[in-house]
Structures are given as C-alpha cells and as structure tokens.
Design a protein that fits this description.
21% strand; Aldehyde Dehydrogenase, Chain A, domain 2; Aldehyde Dehydrogenase, Chain A, domain 1; alpha/beta; 476 residues; 7-stranded mixed sheet; 15 helices
Length: 476
C-alpha cells in the first residue's frame, strides 16, 4: 500500500505532530490502495507559521517573478501529468480517458490561464493624485473537495500565487492522492519554502483549525453548503475574508424554439451524467415544455442507455463509480425518494447496474413528470440523476428555475436572442447558452446558498487581493 504519512510544510515533507492514519479507498474496488496521515491543530499551526514568515518576502515579489514561478509550475505539471491522471483515476474511480483528458487537464488549464492573465493585469491605478493599488490579502487557507480534486486546488493556488499570497492547503481526505502529486509538482517547480504548505486531514481536525486560525487572513472553500455555513461561522470571530463555492441545483431550460430539441435534451442528460453526476454545476433539473415531457423522457432515457458504466481502467467506460459508500447510500436513498413521491422513472433506478456487484456504481437515472416541490428537485443529489420538469411558457420556466435556494449555474437552449433574454432573468452565477463550453477566464461562483465570491480568471485573482488607496501619492 502506498503510504503518504507526511505533510508539506516550509518546503519539506514533515512528520505529523501525532500519527493518525486513514485508508484511501478506490471506489471502483471498495479496497484501500493508499493511506494518509490526518493532521490536527498543531500541524496547522506549524504550516500557518511557515506561511506567515514567507509572506513577508513573497508578497514583495514582482509580477515578473511570480509569472516565472507559474511557468515553472506548468512545466513541472506537464512532466507529472500522467501521475496526476492516474491518482485521480484511483482515488475517484474516474474513467481513465476522463481522468486524462478532463480531470487532469483542468489543473493545467487554470495555471495556463492565470499565467496569461497575470501578464497583462495591472495592480495599480492612478486617479489624479491618488494611487489605488491591489495587494496580496495575506496568508490563505484553501479547503478543497473530492469531486474535481485538482481543478479546485489549481483554481485557488494559481491565483493565490499570482497575487503574492502564501497558503495552507487542506485537500479532501477522500481524494488526497492528486493533492500529493500536486505538492510534488510545486516542490519540483521551486516554490519558495513556506509559500505553499499542505496538511491532510478531515474537517474537524484540520478544516476547523484553518477557518478559525487568527493568523489566516482569508479562507477559500469549495464544498457543501452545510459545511460552508460552519466555516463561515468559525471564521467570523477573526473577521477574515471567506470566499465559498458551494452546492447547486442548476436548471437546464429547453425552450420551444431550440434549434434541435433532440440534441439539447440528449446533450443535457449526458452532461448530467458526466463525472458520475458529481459536479456542483451539473444541469440536474431539465425544464421542457409541458406538452413535450414524454418526448424529452424518451430522449434522455436513450442517453442513459448510451452510458457505459464499469471498470475505470477500461477505455470504453464513460462513467465510473460514485466517490464513496456514503455517497452511494445517499444517492440510492434519493432515487427511492423520487419514486415514493410520484416521479415517473424513465431510466435507471436504485441499485447497481447489471453485472457490477462490487464498487460504488450507480445507474444513470432519469425521472420525468417531476414537480419542483419534490425532494429530487430540491436537494443536491450529487449523483447521475436527472429530473425533468414541465413548464407552461417563459414566465413559468423562469419561476421554476429560480425557485431554489441555490444559484450556481444554469443552462438555456433556444433561439439566441430569446435564450439570452431568459438567461438574463435567472438568479445564478454562470449560465451556458446553447451548449457553450466552459471558459476558464469567466468568473465561476454562485448566488444565494451557492456561495459568495468568484473563482477563475481575473475575478478569481481579485479574490486574493486587498485594495489600498494612497492619497497624495502623485502630488507634484
């Protein structure tokens, strides 16, 4: 078994204050393939002290020096790209092709985008005799999830480094191996000692110590809304900045004038099943004209039938298992709840797919005739479960889409001007119009209980900056 029982603190792999280990489970086999150490408050104290000491010098580096560091990280990432993809395949059960071409690629993408952004970003602005400058916020605590492990690490670490911040990372204990590969990349790239630190652990042991630490100036968290509330409460006494990307229950509105109804429904269903449905911005509520409900259900069921669930090592596999036994149990319970509450099961259902008796595999599931008061339309399932709801006219579609505590993402398909008009009425942080692909330069984050602050691109960089006004700086 691969034992990784050290943390990365002040530029070196360091033994924990107290050795407590946790097995890392491959969800495709239900067997441990690695073990990590779980940190505690003493480990966090040590990492924060290193970051605080390093901030004094790193915060004064030039934009050019930080850009050179990002380029070195990109080069080291390329050298370890295969290692990263393999770690994600094992810890998440991500299909081999998906781990290589999508999951691992996102980490590289965020660093490349941030390097390009940094080249042209201006940290100072003169307004008459006043100079307004943007400066690093300080020591940052970064707490990341398991579902897009290196994506979420990179979209926090890259802007933090670009801004001149130092940091302590706590990756998810469910998917920690990609973070270890990432840390090796950072070390190989020559990130100065103390600038980047990594402590493995769980929420009570490490997450709480980070969010409440008096010497941490900002916490950036991605995860559930429930955990986000706890982090914000824990951070409040020290009045630190808290940036959060939380849950979602995104609506996918297929308008009457969609150029290709079949393509829009099929593609929306496939996107819902991607990453085994474990994406906070997944289009899990599909809204279709009421009189096309059964047609949409047939198309979505055909999409579900196309999904190849199975061994992540098989290049033909398009959907792997859910991340853990806890997640599998939650998803199964919500599928059962949908059936109990009267939604019509068009595809999938409870239990494992035929022929898979081991591993946390779930069936791609489609419900039709869902109403927005049903549990499966309200709660974030975080599994391959699509709910199809009917609407009567634009106003009804918008009302249903906005009738949620979440507001992370959204999707609209239709005649371009019509779709754009509908998109402007949705209370959500990001909207894909007519199948638009992700854009790493566009801000990503949510309204309402989907969080606050933004990641990606220049908006993500500015989360890690403070604003200073120097009056009289330019006086003659």
């Amino acid at each position: 078994m691969n034992q990784k029982h050290q943390f990365y603190i002040n530029g070196a792999w360091t033994d924990p204050a107290e050795l407590k280990t946790l097995d890392v489970i491959n969800p495709a086999t239900e067997e441990a393939f690695a073990s990590i150490a779980l940190g505690n408050a003493a480990d966090v104290d040590k990492a924060v002290a290193a970051a605080k000491a390093a901030f004094e010098s790193y915060s004064q580096t030039t934009k050019e020096e930080r850009l050179e560091l990002l380029q070195k990280i990109i080069a080291a990432y390329k050298a370890h790209y295969a290692d990263m993809a393999e770690a994600i395949r094992l810890e998440m059960g991500a299909p081999k092709t998906f781990a290589e071409k999508v999951q691992a690629a996102t980490g590289m993408g965020h660093f490349m985008t941030m390097a390009k952004m940094l080249e042209s970003y201006e940290f100072t602005e003169d307004r008459g005799t006043t100079r307004i400058s943007r400066e690093p916020v300080g020591v940052c605590g970064l707490i990341t999830p398991w579902n897009w492990p290196v994506n979420q690490i990179a979209c926090k670490v890259a802007p933090a480094l670009a801004a001149g911040c130092t940091m302590v990372l706590k990756p998810s204990e469910i998917a920690p191996m990609s973070a270890i590969v990432f840390t090796e990349i950072m070390h190989e790239a020559g990130v100065p000692a103390g600038v980047y630190n990594m402590v493995n652990g769980d929420g009570p042991g490490v997450g709480e110590a980070i969010s409440g630490h008096p010497d941490i100036d900002m916490v950036s968290f991605t995860g559930s809304t429930r955990a986000g509330v706890a982090i914000a409460q824990n951070a409040a006494p020290t009045v630190k900045r808290v940036s959060q990307e939380l849950g979602g229950k995104s609506a996918n509105i297929i308008l009457e004038d969609a150029a290709d109804f079949q393509k829009a429904v099929f593609g929306g269903a496939m996107q819902c099943f991607g990453n085994t449905g474990q994406s906070c911005n997944a289009p899990t509520r599909m809204l279709v004209p009421m009189d096309r409900m059964d047609e949409a259900g047939e198309i979505a069921a055909a999409a579900a039938a196309k999904v190849k669930v199975g061994d992540p090592e098989d290049e033909a596999t398009s959907m792997g298992p859910l991340s853990s036994d806890v997640q599998w149990t939650k998803v199964q319970a919500l599928i059962e709840k949908g059936m109990e509450e009267g939604a019509k099961l068009a595809a999938g259902g409870p239990g494992r797919p035929d022929g898979l008796n081991k591993g946390y595999f779930a069936k791609p599931t489609v419900f039709t005739h869902v109403t927005n008061d049903m549990t499966i339309a309200r709660e974030e399932i975080f599994g391959p479960v699509l709910s199809i709801l009917g609407y009567e006219g634009d106003d009804d579609a918008v009302a249903i889409a906005n009738d949620t505590v979440y507001g992370l993402s959204g999707y609209v398909s239709g005649e371009p001007a019509h779709a754009a008009k509908i998109a402007s009425r949705l209370r959500t942080g990001q909207i894909h119009i007519n199948g638009a692909a992700p854009d790493f330069t566009a801000p990503f984050g949510g309204y309402k209980q989907s969080g606050n602050g933004r990641e990606w691109g220049d908006h993500g960089l500015e989360e890690f900056l403070e604003t200073k006004a120097m009056l009289g700086h330019n006086a003659a």
